[in-house]
Specification:
Length: 414
């Protein structure tokens, strides 16, 4: 709730300080940070979330943490080269405004990736209070530091993004220190007898094999979450990007809160029940909990979408201002589309618990095709409303595709 309120206040303050034009630039920068997080660190944090229970069961958490450190070292080295090349190219081709924006965005993606992996480990070990604390702290620090920068240096997207970076590096540093001092994690991090042995290489191989499909997922997810902003820029302008991004954030905030709490609480338990998924008892136990979680989330989604439909204009005006509320009618449609996508994503836990993440590449591809086709067909005649409808269509298609995939997995298992 603390993060939820901070997120809404961030939208309110930054839309007022920056205006639609600069807020649109900030949204585009955040989309670049999202690409780094999804493509590079998403596979690592998902692998960490899945394998903590496995290696804890074996009494080999030290091996897992050694492998994770190595993976992060390679990721940071690769990303450092990419940041340098992209920044130089943009400096000469697009000017300092965009080169600095993308540099800060990619740096934010790197910092967020480190923090998210730590959160995955703590979440898997059910350190929920610590995860919630750092997630909320990051949101409020981003708000405070970006506003301080705007007051001192001016209302630009680059200054706001710099505040985001400083906030995330602060929370990540504190999170690393706390993690190393944890009696349940710290001893395994320091104890590194497997750092050059077969056990570590085997762990890296398992993490890589499990995480590799998430690179494909990242391509689909990035396009599903962020490509609409760039298409709005192509069809309309940066002002329209700012308005659309603000309403999208308002729509996604309550859904992210609701599904985030549910996932953070239940997904580690589902994986824990599944264990190494070597017996039917483990599989049935995890499936039962997953089905109950999905039913609970569906009811919650109906309530959120209904409230958004009834009070769309008031909500958008309250969280932003009158300039942003001219397209408030798309709020409930975005809520429905985002919610359907989240329901589908929750259902993928079934295959993930059975170590079959690659089964969901096709549903992600279907979702992406539906979204892009919907945007190209509807954006020009309907504007932002068309893009919202495209999200709804793609979310429904993704949910259906995941349900069919899970049925096939169940059929093969039986």
């Amino acid at each position: 709730m603390f993060a939820f309120l901070g997120g809404f206040l961030t939208i309110k303050v930054l839309t007022g300080e920056l205006g639609p034009h600069a807020y649109g630039q900030l949204a585009l920068g955040v989309s670049a940070a999202g690409a780094v997080h999804m493509f590079i660190y998403g596979p690592i944090e998902q692998s960490a979330l899945r394998f903590v229970s496995v290696y804890k069961e074996r009494g080999q958490l030290d091996v897992l943490f050694a492998a994770l450190r190595t993976c992060h070292g390679y990721a940071a080295a690769i990303l450092g080269v990419v940041i340098a090349i992209v920044t130089i190219v943009l400096q000469f081709s697009a000017g300092s405004k965009w080169s600095v924006l993308i540099f800060l965005a990619l740096t934010l993606g790197l910092l967020s990736g480190v923090s998210s992996t730590l959160s995955s480990v703590q979440s898997a070990l059910r350190k929920r209070s610590a995860v919630a604390l750092f997630q909320a702290s990051d949101v409020w620090l981003r708000l405070l530091l970006s506003v301080a920068g705007i007051i001192w240096f001016g209302s630009t997207a680059n200054i706001a993004l710099l505040g985001f970076c400083l906030a995330t590096v602060t929370t990540a540093t504190i999170q690393i220190t706390r993690t190393l001092r944890s009696p349940e994690i710290g001893p395994h991090v320091h104890f590194d007898h497997a750092s050059n042995g077969m056990e570590k290489r085997d762990a890296i191989s398992k993490l890589t094999a499990y995480g590799r499909p998430y690179i494909a997922f990242a391509a689909f997810s990035w396009f599903s979450i962020y490509c609409d902003r760039w298409l709005v820029l192509a069809y309309l302008d940066e002002r329209a990007v700012g308005i659309y991004a603000a309403i999208f954030q308002i729509a996604s905030a309550p859904i992210a809160l609701f599904f985030g709490i549910t996932n953070q609480f239940l997904v580690p338990m589902i994986f824990d029940r599944a264990g190494a998924a070597t017996s039917q008892r483990q599989i049935r136990s995890s499936e039962g909990l997953l089905n109950a979680a999905v039913a609970f989330c569906f009811v919650g989604l109906l309530g959120i979408t209904g409230i958004a439909a009834l009070f769309a204009g008031s909500l958008v005006t309250l969280v932003t201002n009158a300039e942003f509320s001219t397209h408030a009618e798309i709020l409930w449609i975005l809520c429905a589309g985002i919610g359907l996508n989240n329901l589908g994503q929750m259902l993928t836990v079934k295959g993930l618990a059975l170590n079959q993440p690659r089964k969901y590449i096709l549903p992600k591809f279907i979702q992406l095709c539906l979204l892009i086709a919907g945007i190209f067909a509807l954006a020009k005649p309907l504007g932002l409303l068309g893009i919202a409808l495209a999200h709804c269509i793609s979310g429904a298609g993704y949910l259906l595709a995941v349900v069919l995939t899970n049925w096939r997995i169940q059929h093969v298992a039986n």
